[in-house]
Design brief:
mainly beta, 7 domains, Immunoglobulin-like, 60 strands, four-stranded mixed beta sheet
Length: 897
C-alpha cells in the first residue's frame, strides 16, 4: 500500500509539473502568404526547458528552447491554411501534442514615407506557389488548391493545363479540373528528384473557347521531409604520429545529406561510439583529435573507432549512419637500439689488417628498415690511434668491428673499447638515451720480420761525388729483441745502379756517377727500396730517398737554328733563348754578348733572364747566316756558341718553300710519265684480251723468218744486185717520174744501183719529197723494205702498181720483166683472195678487205705487217689463211680511224 501511495504521489507531482507548463490543444496563427526562413511564428508557452522538450513534427519549423516556433525554410501558405503539430515531452517520458494552424492573412503592412497604414488587397489572378509534401502517403488524388480566374466572375470559363508533371515528364503527377480549376496531386513526389514544378494554366471562355486571361505560370514546391540519412563521402583512413600531444588532429570525417539544404534535415552531428579514451570528434566539423599522449605504436599500431553521423542536429528523430575509422600510428624514434649482452671480448693477432673480429647484435622496437630502426655504431673510447672501425650489416642490423690498422703486440697487449649504438634518426619524444657497452680486445704475439728504424729515410747527396762515398746507414731491428744482430741488407730497386749497399751494416755508398739532371731523378730525388732479412728468413722493407744536390755542371745552350722572318722596309730581329739543365743559382739569369771580333752585322740586347734579342744592323740576303754568341750562366759558366740564323720570307712564323714549278728533276719527270706508261700498258692489255679468242692459232715459222710474218727491212748489207737485172715497166717509171700515178697512197723511195739512200722512221714530207734519217747502202734491202711498207696502202689494177704521191729524187730506167711479172702474179693472187674474202658465207673474213690508210706523218720502226708482203715461197700463199684474226683486228683499227 505504501508503494502505491508513493507512486500516486509521484504521478500527481509529474502531472502537476506538466500542467504547470500549459500547452493548448491547438492554436491559430495569422501568417503571410510566404513565410521566409527565420520567421518567428509564435511562442508556445513559458516552460522549463530543462524539464520539457518541445519538438516540431513539421521539418520546416523548429521549436527553440524558449518555446518560440521559427521557420527553418521558406514556406508558402495556401489559402486554406497550413497545419502542423508540436510535441511536448518531459523527462519522465510523458507528453502532449498541440496543433498549430497557420492562417494566411489578407492584410499586408505597407510602409510609406512618414507613415504606415493597413490596406485590404484585392484578390488577383496571380496565385502564389503551392506546396505539397514529398512522399506524401495520403489518399490520392489529393486536392492542392483551387485556381480562380478574375474573369470567372463575369463569364463562364474553363481551364487547361500543361507542363512537367502533367503532360510532360513526369507525366500524370498533377491533375486540373477544367471546370472548377481544382489542382490535385495523383502520386507521391520525391523532392530530391523533383524539388519543384512549374506549369502553365490558360483560361478559356466556355462558349467561344477564346482566352480570357494571359497564361498563368503555376509553381508547385515540394516540401522536404527527412527521408535521407547522411552518408560518408571519403574513406575513413587516418594516420597520426605515436606519442603525439593530446589535441593533435588525426583527420576530418566528411559527410553529406541529400535533403534540403539549410534545414535541420541536413544538419549533421558527428559522434564516436567507441575509442573515447583515445580520440574525440567535433560534433559539427567532424574533426577527430587525440585526447591522450600515450599512443604507442610498439604496443598497438592501429586503432579502429566507430563514427556516427546523424542529421536533425543529432535529434532523436534524426536519421544516421555509422562507419569504422582506421587510425594508424606512424612510427617515431622513441626506442633506442639495445645490446643483447652487457659486454664483449675478442682476441686478435698483431699485424692483422682490415679483418672483421666481432659481430655485435642489437634490438630495436621501432619500424624495421626505417631510419628509426637502422643502427650505426660509434667507438667512443679506446680508438685514439685509429686501429679499429665500425660498420653495420644492412641485413641483420648488427655492428661489425674491424681492425683497420695493424696492432703491435710489443706496444699494447690489451685494448679496451667503448662502443655506442645509435640510430640514423635522432631520438624523439622519449626520455631514453643511447646505450653503449665495453669491448675488450686482446692482442696476441706473432713472430715478425725485421723492421727498419723508419719506413722511409732521406739522405742528401751531391751530384758527381766520387764512387765509394758514404751516403748514410739504413738499419733494421728485430721487433721482439730490439737488436740488429744477424740481419742482412739488400737492394730491391735501384733504377740507375747508383748505390751499393753493405749487406752486414746497411751502409749506402756511391756506385756510379750521380747526375741530378738524369731521367732517373725526379725533381731532384732518387728512390731506392731496401730489404732486411733476419736469420729466420723473415723480411722487412724500407724506402731510401736520395735528395740530389745540384752542381754547376751544365752550360747554357742555344738552339742550332733560328728562323728570322723578313719584314719589308725594316731590319729583322729574332729572339734567342738559352737553356740550362742546372737549377738556380747555377743557371739563369744568363748573360748574352757578341764576341769582340764579330762582323758588325748584328746587335744583341737582353730580353729577359733566359733570352736576348738579336737585331740586324745591315741588309742581309736570304739564307743561312752563322752568328757567334757568348752566353754564360749566373756563375759565369759558359762560352761562345754558334747558331744558324735562317733569313726567309715567312708565313705564320715558318719559311715559305721555293717555287717548285721552275724546274723539274729527273725523279719528278719520271713520276709524271709513269702514270702515262701505266695507262698505255693497261690499254694494250685490254686490246690483247679483246682480240684473243679461245682457240689459239699456231703460225709456223718458215725458214729463218726471225719471228716476223715477212722478212723485210733487213738492215744487214745485202748482196750486190746488178741494176740491169731490175726491170721496171716503162709505164710505171714514166708515171713515177711524172708524179701522175693514181690510186691509194704509196710511200715510195727511189730505185737504182747500189748507192746511198735515206729512209727510216722519222721521215717527213716537205713539198711532196720524203726525207729520211736512216741511211742504207743495200738497194735490195731498201726495195724489200719499201715493198713491205707499201703493202697495206697499194692497189693492184690490171697487174700494174698504181700509187699516188710518189716522188723520186732520181729517175732510173727499170726494165726487169721478171720483177714486173712477180708483181703481176702477186696482184692476181691478191685479187682472187680479196674476191674469196668478200664472198665468205659465214662472214668470218668478210671484213678482211683492202683499206686505204691515211698518212700519219711518221714512218714505222717495225716496218709493214701487211698480209700481201713478199714471202719466200712465192707459189705457196697458204699463209694467208692464217691471218684472219690479225687481219680483222688491223682492219677494225684502220676503220675506226
Amino acid at each position: 500500500m505504501a508503494n502505491v501511495l508513493i507512486f500516486n504521489i509521484c504521478l500527481l507531482l509529474i502531472l502537476s509539473r506538466v500542467e504547470s507548463c500549459f500547452i493548448p490543444k491547438s492554436i491559430h496563427v495569422q501568417v503571410p502568404q510566404t513565410i521566409q526562413a527565420g520567421y518567428h511564428i509564435t511562442r508556445v508557452a513559458d516552460c522549463d526547458t530543462k524539464s520539457m522538450h518541445l519538438t516540431s513534427k513539421d521539418p520546416s519549423f523548429i521549436v527553440e528552447p524558449n518555446g518560440e516556433i521559427v521557420a527553418l525554410t521558406a514556406v508558402s501558405v495556401a489559402s486554406t491554411g497550413r497545419t502542423f503539430s508540436v510535441w511536448a515531452q518531459d523527462n519522465s517520458g510523458l507528453g502532449s501534442e498541440m496543433e498549430v494552424h497557420l492562417v494566411r492573412s489578407t492584410v499586408q503592412e505597407r510602409k510609406q514615407t512618414g507613415q504606415g497604414f493597413l490596406k485590404r488587397s484585392k484578390r488577383r489572378w496571380s496565385p502564389p506557389p503551392f506546396n505539397i509534401l514529398e512522399n506524401d502517403k495520403g489518399l490520392f488524388p489529393k486536392n492542392i488548391e483551387k485556381i480562380v480566374s478574375d474573369s470567372a466572375s463575369t463569364r463562364k470559363v474553363y481551364y487547361t493545363f500543361s507542363g512537367p508533371g502533367y503532360d510532360k515528364h513526369p507525366v500524370g503527377v498533377f491533375d486540373l479540373d477544367r471546370n472548377t480549376g481544382m489542382l490535385s496531386v495523383n502520386k507521391p513526389v520525391d523532392r530530391e528528384e523533383f524539388p519543384s514544378f512549374t506549369l502553365t494554366t490558360n483560361v478559356h471562355d466556355f462558349y467561344t473557347n477564346e482566352l480570357t486571361d494571359l497564361p498563368l505560370p503555376i509553381t508547385i514546391i515540394v516540401d522536404d521531409v527527412n527521408d535521407n540519412a547522411p552518408t560518408f563521402t571519403d574513406r575513413l583512413q587516418f594516420s597520426v604520429l605515436e606519442r603525439c600531444k593530446a589535441g593533435t588532429v588525426v583527420g576530418m570525417v566528411n559527410a553529406t545529406d541529400r535533403d534540403e539544404e539549410k534545414t535541420l534535415h541536413v544538419k549533421i552531428k558527428y559522434s564516436l561510439l567507441d575509442g573515447l579514451d583515445l580520440f574525440s570528434i567535433h560534433p559539427e566539423t567532424g574533426v577527430i583529435t587525440t585526447v591522450t599522449n600515450s599512443l604507442d605504436r610498439e604496443v598497438k599500431d592501429k586503432h579502429m573507432v566507430t563514427v556516427q553521423i546523424k542529421d536533425m542536429d543529432g535529434a532523436n528523430n534524426g536519421l544516421f549512419n555509422t562507419g569504422t575509422a582506421t587510425i594508424t600510428l606512424a612510427d617515431i624514434n622513441d626506442n633506442p637500439p639495445t645490446f643483447t649482452k652487457p659486454t664483449y671480448g675478442v682476441t686478435v693477432a698483431e699485424n692483422e689488417n682490415e679483418k672483421l673480429i666481432l659481430r655485435i647484435p642489437v634490438e630495436d622496437k621501432d619500424l624495421i628498415n626505417t631510419p628509426n630502426w637502422i643502427s650505426k655504431f660509434v667507438i667512443t673510447k679506446g680508438n685514439e690511434n685509429g686501429n679499429f672501425r665500425m660498420a653495420t650489416d644492412p641485413k641483420t642490423n648488427e655492428g661489425l668491428l674491424y681492425v683497420s690498422k695493424a696492432l703491435d703486440y710489443e706496444q699494447n697487449q690489451n685494448i679496451k673499447l667503448q662502443i655506442e649504438a645509435r640510430n640514423e634518426a635522432e631520438l624523439s619524444n622519449t626520455n631514453a638515451q643511447w646505450q653503449s657497452i665495453p669491448v675488450d680486445v686482446a692482442v696476441t704475439n706473432v713472430d715478425e720480420g725485421p723492421q727498419f728504424t723508419a719506413p722511409t729515410v732521406r739522405f742528401p747527396v751531391k751530384e758527381n761525388v766520387p764512387n765509394g762515398t758514404l751516403i748514410g746507414i739504413y738499419r733494421a731491428v728485430d721487433p721482439e729483441t730490439k737488436s740488429s744482430d744477424g740481419i742482412m741488407y739488400y737492394k730491391v730497386t735501384d733504377p740507375a745502379s747508383w748505390i751499393n749497399v753493405d749487406r752486414n751494416t746497411g751502409e749506402l755508398k756511391v756506385a756510379n756517377t750521380i747526375d741530378r739532371e738524369s731521367s732517373f731523378a725526379q725533381n731532384g730525388t732518387y728512390i731506392i727500396t731496401m730489404k732486411a732479412v733476419d736469420a729466420s728468413s723473415k723480411t722487412g722493407t724500407g724506402t731510401v730517398i736520395l735528395v740530389v744536390e745540384d752542381e754547376n755542371d751544365n752550360k747554357p745552350t742555344l738552339p742550332s737554328k733560328i728562323v728570322l722572318c723578313e719584314k719589308e722596309g725594316e731590319l729583322g730581329s729574332v729572339l734567342v733563348e738559352a737553356e740550362d739543365n742546372d737549377q738556380p743559382p747555377f743557371s739563369s739569369p744568363f748573360r748574352f754578348s757578341l764576341p769582340p771580333d764579330n762582323d758588325g752585322k748584328w746587335s744583341l740586347k737582353p730580353f729577359n733572364d733566359t733570352a736576348a734579342t738579336l737585331q740586324q744592323l745591315k741588309e742581309l740576303p736570304t739564307g743561312l747566316h752563322e752568328v757567334s754568341i757568348d752566353v754564360k750562366d749566373l756563375q759565369g759558366n759558359g762560352g761562345i756558341q754558334k747558331t744558324n740564323i735562317k733569313i726567309c720570307q715567312c708565313r705564320n712564323g715558318a719559311c715559305l718553300s721555293k717555287d717548285k714549278a721552275v724546274s723539274l728533276g729527273g725523279l719528278a719527270l719520271l713520276a709524271m710519265l709513269l702514270p702515262l706508261a701505266l695507262l698505255l700498258l693497261l690499254c694494250l692489255l685490254l686490246a690483247f684480251f679483246c682480240i684473243t679468242k679461245g682457240d689459239k692459232l699456231e703460225i709456223d715459222d718458215a725458214g729463218d723468218s726471225g719471228g716476223i710474218l715477212l722478212k723485210s727491212n733487213t738492215e744487214a748489207p745485202g748482196e750486190e744486185v746488178d741494176s740491169s737485172l731490175i726491170n721496171v715497166p716503162t709505164m710505171l717509171v714514166d708515171q713515177a717520174v711524172k708524179g701522175s700515178v693514181k690510186g691509194s697512197g704509196l710511200n715510195a723511195g727511189w730505185l737504182g744501183k747500189k748507192s746511198s739512200s735515206t729512209i727510216g722512221v722519222n721521215s717527213t714530207q716537205e713539198n711532196g719529197i720524203y726525207k729520211s734519217g736512216v741511211v742504207t747502202d743495200d738497194m735490195q734491202q731498201f726495195y724489200s723494205s719499201q715493198y713491205d711498207s707499201q703493202y697495206g696502202a697499194q692497189q693492184f689494177n690490171g697487174g700494174h702498181l698504181v700509187g699516188s704521191g710518189m716522188d723520186f729524187h732520181h729517175q732510173y730506167l727499170i726494165q726487169d720483166s721478171a720483177l714486173l711479172q712477180n708483181w703481176q702474179t702477186n696482184g692476181r693472187y691478191l685479187d682472187q683472195k680479196l674476191t674469196l674474202l668478200g664472198s665468205e658465207g659465214d662472214g668470218r673474213y668478210a671484213d678482211d678487205i683492202i683499206h686505204a690508210y691515211g698518212f700519219e706523218g711518221v714512218g714505222s720502226v717495225a716496218g709493214s705487217i701487211g698480209c700481201c708482203s713478199e714471202y719466200d715461197d712465192k707459189e705457196n700463199l697458204d699463209f694467208l689463211n692464217t691471218l684472219g684474226p690479225k687481219f680483222n683486228t688491223l682492219a677494225d683499227v684502220c676503220k675506226s680511224t
